UniProtKB/TrEMBL annotation:
This is 2-methylcitrate dehydratase. InterPro entries: MmgE/PrpD_sf, MmgE/PrpD_sf_1, MmgE/PrpD_sf_2, MmgE_PrpD, MmgE_PrpD_C, MmgE_PrpD_N. It is an enzyme of class 4 (lyase). GO terms for molecular function: 2-methylcitrate dehydratase activity. PANTHER family: 2-METHYLCITRATE DEHYDRATASE (PTHR16943:SF8), 2-METHYLCITRATE DEHYDRATASE-RELATED (PTHR16943). It comes from Aurantimicrobium photophilum. Keywords: Lyase. The lineage of its organism: Bacteria, Bacillati, Actinomycetota, Actinomycetes, Micrococcales. Monomer.
């Protein structure tokens, strides 16, 4: 990897195109380097993971709404169109709308992969737009793998270097460029075309973090889908020879100068050198539980404490529960956010998903976590849960913050230390650095776990024969023909989609 210095340039200063970050990203995307077997296997795992969480959300309102919009945009000219999760394989829609609908389905339950560094991200959000274009234009499985490897690589590299959230910019600002780059790789586009697509994709996907603050709305699931849709449209526009704002990162009125660290900012962005394999996907990790990633290890710790200290599950026995954790966890999903909604039993699922006091309380009391039951209004409103929930707070701990930002995989941690003080004076202390499913955790996810997650979430939604068809196909990914790529979707059982009527809109 090579570190690239990125700073703001005044208009009168010379910044050659070859020295711009967007161009350097485009050069990485257009480099025809081979994909390693290890990366290919992980790409397969993440396509399975995306399908898992998508089928589990097919009848949820935001997903139904997005799918209804996509169904109003049949296959466009220039290709065969792309599939929609849940619908029959022969039903195709325009690729940007497939990216939209499938992106919402993947993101809705907050249940797929993650990468956390200077910024937050869900790199699996790259897959819906890249796959939609693959199905539309018809590419081989090997080219799809190359595109997804690039999408992950660029997003991971940007997330390692450039913090968005401290300036209240939503993390999907890194997704538009990474998805555009991935599509460019897959289609073997020239560096110039990819460069222009990256510029527009970034320009149109910078938005505030209000989508993840306070009373969190259904836009949380739509935001990355919008970025993916914009990436598809940006590539289309660039292929037609149109240009985009430049220099998009370094310009005097660009993203860094006015949305990020300002005119004096400087970043060191790592990118693979020419001929260097793209391995960013191997730095990422998926979720065993449907919740914000910083909650994963704390759910596992709560399950452990449930078994070892059942007395701590009763609020009548507990004086306080304090979770000592990282800056990010405390201020984003902890009490440091100062969001009263994080303690509101009538809050939306999206809000509860971003409340570690709620999540830890329920996991502690139940000794388990479920993607539906743990968020049910009746579960959130239970009197003993509300009582214990209101005794649970977070505190930033410098050591956990240091470990959160460490670049050493053996040190990097996303958990915390929990101190439960009982009314009789007993103090229960325990900690967990990484989730059980993390590569360094107690039960790391491998192919078997990804497949099992898919089978569990597909139960009752997808016919057994369809489950087996999809799993057999996706595990042959590098060998697939353009025609077979259209099978990388899943069709719901009869009556499943009909149980959630499509809403009406403009289209």
């Amino acid at each position: 990897m090579k570190l690239h210095n990125v700073r703001v340039y005044k208009s009168e200063e010379t910044l050659e195109r070859k020295d711009q970050l967007a161009w350097k990203i485009a050069e990485v995307a257009s480099d025809p380097v081979a994909v390693s077997a290890e990366v290919t296997e992980m790409v397969i795992n993440r396509i399975i993971d995306n399908a898992s969480v998508a089928v589990a959300s097919l009848t949820r309102k935001p997903v139904v709404s997005a799918r209804s919009q996509a169904l109003s945009h049949p296959s466009s000219t220039g290709g065969n169109g792309a599939n929609l999760f849940g619908e029959p394989q022969d039903l195709r829609v325009s690729p940007e709308w497939a990216a939209w609908a499938n992106g919402v389905a993947v993101r809705e339950l907050d249940y797929h992969d993650t990468f956390l560094a200077a910024e937050y991200s869900h790199p699996g959000d790259n897959i819906p737009p890249i796959l939609a274009v693959a199905q539309h234009v018809g590419v081989s499985g090997a080219d799809l793998v190359r595109g997804i490897a690039t999408g992950y690589e660029i997003q991971v590299d940007l997330v390692k270097a450039i913090c968005l959230h401290k300036h209240k910019i939503d993390h999907v600002a890194h997704l538009g460029p990474s998805a555009a780059a991935g599509i460019g790789t897959m289609l073997k586009l020239p560096t110039e075309t990819i460069y222009q697509a990256i510029g527009q994709a970034l320009h149109t996907t910078t938005a505030t973090r209000q989508s993840r603050k306070g009373e969190i709305s259904s836009w949380k699931a739509h935001a990355p889908a919008f970025a993916g849709k914009m990436a598809v449209e940006a590539v289309d526009r660039a292929m037609r020879g149109e240009t985009s704002p430049t220099p998009i990162y370094e310009g005097e009125d660009g993203v860094i100068a006015w949305m990020l660290d300002g005119p004096t900012a400087a970043y060191e962005v790592p990118l693979p050198e020419k001929g260097e394999a793209k391995r960013g996907i191997l730095d990422t990790y998926t979720k065993e539980h449907s919740a914000e990633y910083q909650a994963q290890a704390l759910i596992d710790l709560a399950r452990k404490l449930h078994n070892e200290h059942p007395e701590a599950t009763n609020p009548e026995n507990v004086k306080s529960v304090v979770i000592h954790t990282s800056h990010h966890t405390h201020y984003v999903i902890g009490s440091g956010a100062n969001d009263p909604q994080k303690y509101d039993p009538t809050a939306s699922r999206e809000t509860l998903d971003h409340s570690i006091p709620y999540i830890f309380t329920v996991a502690l009391q139940d000794g388990a976590w479920h993607h539906v039951d743990s968020y049910a209004p009746a579960r959130a409103g239970r009197a003993d849960t509300v009582a214990l929930w209101n005794k649970t707070t977070t505190l930033e701990d410098a050591e956990w913050t240091r470990r959160y930002h460490s670049e050493d995989p053996a040190v990097k941690a996303f958990g915390g230390r929990v101190e439960i003080t009982l009314n009789d004076g007993t103090v229960i202390v325990d900690e967990l650095a990484v989730a059980d499913a993390h590569p360094l955790g107690a039960r790391p996810f491998a192919r078997e776990q990804y497949i099992n997650k898919f089978r569990i979430l597909a139960d009752g939604v997808i016919e057994d024969a369809e489950v087996e068809r999809f799993l057999a196909l996706v595990q042959r990914l590098p060998e697939l023909t353009a025609e077979e790529i259209g099978g990388l979707t899943v069709t719901a059982k009869a009556g499943v989609l009909a149980s959630a009527p499509l809403p009406k809109g403009l289209f």
